[in-house]
Write a structure and sequence with these properties.
The structure holds two protein chains of two kinds.
Chain A lengths: L6 H6 L3 H10 L7 H12 L4 H11 L3 H8 L13 E6 L2 H5 L2 H12 L12 E6 L11 E3 L3 E3 L4 H12 L18 E3 L2 H4 L6 H9 L1 H11 L11 H10 L6 E6 L8 H8 L1 H15 L3 E6 L7 H13 L16 E6 L9 H8 L23 E5 H13 L1 H5 L9 E8 L5 E6 L4 H7 L5 E6 L5 E4 L17 E6 L4 H15 L5 H18 L3 E2 H17 L3 H5 L2 H9 L1 H5 L2 E3 L8 H4 L1 H7 L13
Parallel strand pairs in A: 1-2, 5-11, 6-7, 6-9, 7-8, 10-14, 15-16
Antiparallel strand pairs in A: 1-3, 3-4, 10-11, 12-13, 12-14
Helix pairs in contact in A: 2-3, 4-5, 7-8, 10-14, 10-17, 11-12, 11-14, 13-14, 14-17, 20-21, 21-22, 22-24
Chain B lengths: L4 E4 L2 E4 L6 H7 L23 E4 L2 E4 L10 E3 L3 H17 L14 H8 L23 E3 L9 H8 L6 E4 L6 E4 L26 E3 L12 H4 L12
Parallel strand pairs in B: 1-5
Antiparallel strand pairs in B: 1-2, 3-4, 3-5, 6-9, 7-8
The chains are: A alpha/beta, B alpha+beta.
Chain lengths: ~600, ~240
Amino acid sequence: MASVLTAADRLAGFQRQAVAEVLQRHDHDPHALVQILREAQEQQGWLPRTLLAFIARELRLTLAHVEGVAGFYRFFHTRPVGQYRVLFSNNITDRMLGAQLLMDDLCLRLGVRPGEVRADNRVSVAHCSCTGLCDQGPALLVNHRHVITRLDAERVARIADLIEAQTPVGDWPAQWFRVVDNVQRADVLLGTPQQPGAAIAAALARGAEALLDEIKRSNLRGRGGAGFATGLKWELCRNAPGSAHYVVCNADEGEPGTFKDRVLLTRHADMMFEGMTIAALAVGARRGLVYLRGEYRYLLEPLHAVLQRRREQHLLGSAIQGQAGFDFDIDIHVGAGAYVCGEESALIESLEGKRGTPRIRPPFPVEQGYLDQPTTVNNVETYCAATHIAIHGAAWWSGIGTPKSTGTKIHSVSGDCDRPGIYEYPFGTRIGRILEDCGARDTQAVQIGGPSGVCVSAFEFGRRIAFEDVPTAGAFMVFDRSRDMFKVVRNFAHFFAHESCGFCTPCRVGTALVVKRLDKLAAGRGSRHDIDVLFELDKLMHTATHCGLGGAACNPLRDTIVKFRPAYEQHLKSLYFEPGFDLDAELSVARKMTGRDDAAAHLETAP
Amino acid sequence: MTAAAFSLDGEDVPFRPGETVLQAAKRAGRYIPHLCWHPEFRAHGSCRICTVKVNGRAGAACTVQAAAGQEVESNTEELNAHRKTLLQMLFVEGNHFCPSCEKSGNCLLQATAYEMNMEGPHFEEFYPDRPVDASHPDILLDFNRCILCELCVRASHEVDGKDIFAIAGHGMGTHLVINSESGRLVDTDMALTDRAASICPVGVILPKRRGFVIPIGERRYDVNTVAEPKHQEAS
């Protein structure tokens, strides 16, 4: 599309016609606000206030509302950004691979300070939360659209040159954008080939109620972490009254260290869409939505291509596989950098074009979800598992794993090991077994389920992955004995503070206070009192937050203070109290004013 | 037949179908400390001051549905300690200088802090930079004191039908914004008679030229406590 800038556009600061086309494409639907903002930003680079006002007018929303939504998502810019926007993945695994040094190097080469825009508006360099490329890090995002993996000093030097030469990102070396799947161990989900349509045919042969019954008898539990029974969720949704029912796939894989959905979306998109389609049969839905995290924007076109092929194969659309009345289609909604949207009610708010603030529950989404209608929200892996149950039956599925955790689980293994990547095991597998298989040596700790999961230390490696013992949403980050667990926890604390939605007091302020304390310890100014305060904050946040983000934000802190206390104590200056600032330095102004610098004018040397 | 009831700190509280724990407690003349909840508006659940334990499980009393036979704990050492910490968080997050604040003595945050025996900030202050908006002829906005309860957002939307306020940003950067092209209050149709103009529990939305009309010492919470049924919320 030719982008002609009219005089009026120049005055307004954006191309009105192009934005009008985006609005048209979304039927001027205010519920599409997040998608409209994202697409407008892809065209315009950022979201000037004049543009927000234009969108607000066109959608009959208030400017303040649109401003509020735009300001919520980390990937939306309401201030000018560089022509090149480089975001380094700030997960601990990227940092362990040297991300910070590489970022410093790039900033130095480009003459730009982290988080700022260079004076000529050419480039900005900053951090983002985990990009889900931990098995091939350090990684970065360019212009919220391209991912670059396996960064090293040479790549960084060339990136700096390409930016200086104003080479379009599309013309950068293609192999930089290659994302490999790294499937190291496949079990039934990743290893059993499936013909597109096979699970739908099996589901139709059984009928909706028998399918639901099969899913219930399989004891399949949600793979997003909470482990709610999938069959029961579908049944509650099916039985809830409403003018329409919705099937939503949570592909907002934001938990740092998790990248198994990235691989499922890349290799097994058919399986995921098929799982959504049989869920639609079970709950009586005609419309499905995939919430794809903004960091996986590069997967949007391939996923659209799969959807289009499935429509042509009569696996989506009206009368699926010739079954009159079985109509279902799927849209993809791309997120814009907000971890909290992995929480299902926040995800629904975002789908409705609002700030991703978790809702008050009950009512639960199965009763009042998307547009207040009954909605089932399931994880990518859960939908994939459902297709296998539809084909092979509940008895087969529940014969794998443990009684309370049936089937297999896919793990995203990263950190200190020889073979990072994707590992699928039956539930009940020992942690030690996974460590042996991935080539981990001298392991000090594993963070299972990401920062909001559990940190297990060496004496617990005999424990098993299962809802009965160590549950997980899929992250498996390995730390060997050379790592300082305090640094790990501090990274996680910064993550939670960065991702807090800001709605409730304990999470908004508590995550920031935890960061302050840990930064104080890191600066060598800690005392035992600070650790007591951290315990106090943990207890409060566990009790009082509005949603699970704040409740889980102190999990790594609590685990590591108990299990790796020396890692904290080496950062303590005294065992009682240390102020957060240097008392003697604070007196320097007084010394200067009085012209004194003798021993008595210094705290440490005062008689 | 006796009305359905739950137990609040050992004493029965009757409730009507659909009521939350806080609504029923309030109607019964009991006090569960709260800031963002107001009887005229739907529950918000953001301040978390009303966190209670229902059958041992923590929840915000303003959002938990009352049910017969529930054992609700509220006035316990543990929960009041949590409340005090939450209040301290709100104090250090913004810029709250009670001695120079026009709202002092009429402020729900200040009164609740006294009620919970808060004697100091405990945490280090964040001292955010939040310019005031004095553009409107009759109303001053001092964002330094905002606790993000969204009562003004709700009142302006639901009662005044003006949608003058909204929430923007995220995390510690979450803040109140004004709906006008300039972002200033003078360019809205806000009036002193709006419900939103009198709903603020703290000192963000203040009428101009009325400072210290009622002297310190004779104000609402100088003569009443926040626990009294008539004084649990902003006017």
